[in-house]
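Reopening this one. Same input as before:
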Amino acid sequence: MRQWPYSPAGRFLLYRPGQSEPAARLGSRALTLLPREGVQAYDALVRVDEQGPWIEYAQSTERFGGRLEGLTWVRPDGERWRLIPDTGAPPPGLAPRLSDPDAYRAALALHDALEEVAPGSEALRTVARQIELAPFYRCPACHNTFSRREDCALCQGEGFVSEWVDDSV
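Same output, byte for byte:
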């Protein structure tokens, strides 16, 4: 189960503070600034390390472009851009994500069972990939801990939340 809202399968629109039009798109680990008059568009990639997702500029001497904190891109200059999930139709050829909470819960149970009976199997890898790409991640409040999950107001006892839940504010 993911620990943060960002998913490489997610598609997001990014908004600068005070702006009503998106300033960038993020999808499949690629961040593309939307061209504005007089501004050169550039691309960046999302990388993930033990601290979570971060932005790496592709065409700049300064490679570090800030971190993704919840549904916010915190840039090196301190500016905070909001990530809003793009709920439009997926691009052609992209498989639909496992988006139903009940199906996600079932996939988690199946994953646990496969770890017991078929560790390292193709079936386990397939289910793990579906879980990773689903628009859910581990609840940041209770961390899916049995003793805290039942009374958790954020996930309401599920142990996971949707990537549309903003826990960064």
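So the earlier flakiness isn't reproducible anymore. For the record, The chain has a mean pLDDT of 81.
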